[in-house]
Amino acid sequence: MKPSNWIRAAACGAFALAAAVPAAHAAYVLTSQSVGFAVDAVDGASSFTFRITGAPGATGDWATATHLGAFQFQGGSGLGVDWGQAGVSATAFYEPGGPDVGGVNLGLNNGGCGGGSPSHAICFDWRSAAMPGGLLLTNDMRFTITITGAVLDLDTSSRPHLKLNFSGASGATIGDLLSRDMIWEPNGGGSVPVPGSLALAGLALVALGLAGRRRRG
To answer: Cα separation of 32 and 182, whole Å?
Structure first.
């Protein structure tokens, strides 16, 4: 094989390897009763975002809900965090500039975060004396969950399990308690390449440049 052909082949191989390296970004989505839910996460990060869209237009038995009561992420699957491990905790921040609440390692039921201590679960209850119903529903609710004592270890072959309840102004649960696995969305938010893929892509560009210089020579 001619040197220039070898260089071009090496470049093509490097590009192929770069494409095969998995993205460090993952998004998980779910739709129920006309309400959208999405988790956006980056591997190795100490935080992730959670978004709820279209909640005031909910249908079915959520149609009369006015507030978000609580939500829980159950299982280390998908996000790769053992919420029940000693020293691991999390805080959810409601954006922009809203209240924050600390997570508890308790199961979510219709009464809130208090249904035992399931392994890997983290629950955030927004109801309080000042806000008995929780958070007033809006069309686009965004949360940042920050983690202490662990980092995300994404696994796109498994799914985080979301539990959530909506409520009325008094805090009473409205409709069914959501309890479903989220779905991995490969195009959610755009992939961020891992450093290894960037290095391989750079190697491919260098190889192509060398091939071009040999042709000109």
So the answer is: 11
